[in-house]
Amino acid sequence: MNAATGSLFSLPASVTLTEVSPRDGFQNIEQWIPTETKINIVEGIFRSGVKNIEVTSFVSPKAIPQMKDAAIVAEYAVAMAKNTDVNIMALIPNVKGAERALSCGIRKVNYIISASPLHNKKNMNRTPQESFEALCELKKNFPEADVTLGVATAFGCPFQGKVPVDDVITLMRAARDIGINSFTLCDTIGVANPRQVETLLHEVKKNFSDIQLALHLHNTHGMALANIYAAMLQGVDRFESAIGGLGGCPFAPGAAGNAATEDLVNMLNRMEINSNIDLAKLLDVANQIRELVPCSISGMLVKARRYDEFSF
Ligand code: COA
Ligand code: ZN
Asked: Per residue in 226-261, is it b (16+ CB within 10 Å) or e — as a string?
């Protein structure tokens, strides 16, 4: 079997996407986005068939003023998704964030610790060890929370540069030891390359056999889709992305947005990999964001001719 056909056979038949534009996309926008607009966009995402939506973050409103209406958005989204198979999720930075999310009816929370100490300090005002101790407290006091650990700066840090693979594995192992079995490896500043993705995933697979793993890849250097392809070849079938290519951490200078969900779904469709998402409805949301949200859209498809009249 040659390398090309061999690689095609190892691609997943379907992938699960988590839409993060209402959180990662909006957190970085200074101008206030009305709560009603946020809710309309969450509704559009829901209608497009996305099964996992990170609708907001329960962080300090002093750190991220744009997320100060988290409870309203979350409660609306939880009611909207009631009796459906859609997961409403939120990012949390600490125990207080977990308490707030749970009180709005959100069970699936993404707790963030950076693999790099300098970024964790800027982002969370804590050392990674302090953030980890808070995670232990959260697991103990709120067993009903379904916690995913988001490992930020897993592929590079805006303050320290390279992040050793061992630092990522050590953090994951500590979390695994307290019962976390869902992880998202985040390229917070979008500097990963496909070979690096392959190397890190190889180490992760060597060390952990029974975890749920997702990737969150920013597109600063234009390699997010290439990195997703590299990850799929390693068996990863869960990705986070943001409509329009929105996103960026306000505490990670110089980072561009995420892989654009509509570009990713278009790529998956053309590769005959199922995402169960309606591309036309996703593009409607991208256009809605373009009209209503003061941000620039970096996704390609929303600006491109789609050549729908042909089958390529
Ligand atoms: N939600 C709302 N308010 C919170 C909070 C939360 N999750 N955590 C802390 N606060 C409030 C406290 O109640 C306190 O309020 P007060 O001044 O009115 O008494 C204030 O924030 C300071 O609390 P403290 O625990 O000392 O937090 P801090 O100032 O050291 O900030 C974080 C730490 C983690 C709360 C803050 O850095 C943060 O929210 N970071 C998130 C950054 C982010 O979203 N990055 C992008 C996504 S990864
Ligand atoms: Zn991000």
From this structure: bbbbbbbbbebbbbbbbbbbbbbbebbeebbbbbbb
